[in-house]
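Thread: Newbie trying to understand structure tokens

Hi all, I'm a second-year student working on a class project, and my supervisor (Dr. K.) asked me to get a predicted structure for one chain before our next meeting. I've only ever worked with sequences, so writing a 3D structure as a token string is new to me. If someone could post the tokens and maybe explain what I'm looking at, I'd be very grateful. Here's the chain:
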Amino acid sequence: MQIKKIIARITTDTEVYIIFDSDQLANIERFKSNLELLEKHNISFFLLQQSKNLEDEIVTSTRCKRIQEFFNTKGTDQFKAQFNQCKNLQKKLADVDFYAEKLWTGALINQLNKWHKRQKSFTDLTLK
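---
Reply by user tm_fold:
Sure, no problem. This is what the structure looks like when written as tokens:
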């Protein structure tokens, strides 16, 4: 998405939190251009980087050593299917000692080092 289409609706008193996949780098130049445009318009923004994918974030944030342990599945595809069908995800996350404060805590990818001071994690998010 190019932010030019919506930037006029973002006011300078707005904080923008951007959660992104670090393994989706095909459009990194467009992503960087969007960040530069936010800066140019003096819009406050923060980066929350997902490590590789959701499965890695879950492993990092629980006592699971491998994602297959979450539902006792044989592979990632089975995990995804069960995750999407899970009716009581909150209980399941509690069962594997999920710690939300461990979400999005990985180091920022090299291509975004220019904005390292804008990196945040789950614990930085608060409702105002």
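A couple of things are worth pointing out once you decode it. The radius of gyration is 17 Å. Residues 28-40 form the longest helix (13 residues). Feel free to ask follow-ups in this thread.
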